[in-house]
Amino acid sequence: MIALLLPLLFATATPSAELELRDPVLRALVEGEAAQAQGDGATLGEKAQLLTALGATPAPGQQDLASLWTSEAQSRGATVAALPYRGRALGPAYRRGSVVPGGSVTMRQLFLGGQRAQILVAPTSSGDGHLSIKVQGAHGETLCAKPVGGPQANCAWMPLFTERYDIVIENDGAAPADFYMLVR
């Protein structure tokens, strides 16, 4: 089992030389999308397995990319071995989204008190979109506000109480901007 997962965890293929995502789930999402666009079934299957091995699941209402990519890789002739399923109570959830120029997207997310909360955002395309992330607490206070510059932006904090937080992704650029958001 470990021999099966090690190559997936340390894969180094990147869709572009300048893109060096530090988070393994975000890296798998962006590299999987690049493999899908290039028709690379073997890499697509590897990224699907990596998402599953890392315990990443889609946010509610989002498509399960691990299942989609596995099916697509197999239809392209790649052999994708099934990983044993052991499940996780909590784990990373991902969401793919798009923001129109001058627009914003707000999502509410429950975070548990006393457990580290983390949100990462990575743009999926280069262009004229300029993304930023803002996290606001239940009483409207801003916990984190950052531009999504470079390969990703990261907001992390320790909630004192279990409550819902607003996650706002804004695009103040001249073109639509696509992104992946990872909630841990």
Characterization of this structure:
Helix content is 26%, strand content 31%. It contains 4 helices and 9 strands; from the N terminus they run H-H-H-E-H-E-E-E-E-E-E-E-E. The strands form 2 sheets. It has a 5-stranded mixed beta sheet, covered by helices on one side. It has a 4-stranded antiparallel beta sheet with strand order 3-8-5-6, with no helix packed on it. With 184 residues, it is an alpha+beta fold. It is globular and about 50 Å long. Helix 2 (24-38) packs antiparallel against helix 3 (41-53) and helix 3 runs antiparallel to helix 4. The protein starts with a helix and ends with a strand.
Structure classification? alpha+beta
Helical content band: 25-40%
Give the ordered list of helices and strands: HHHEHEEEEEEEE
Count of DSSP-assigned helices: 4
List its salient traits:
184 residues; alpha+beta; five-stranded mixed sheet; four-stranded antiparallel sheet; globular; disordered N terminus
Task: Kindly summarize this structure in a few lines.
Helices cover 26% and strands 31% of the residues.
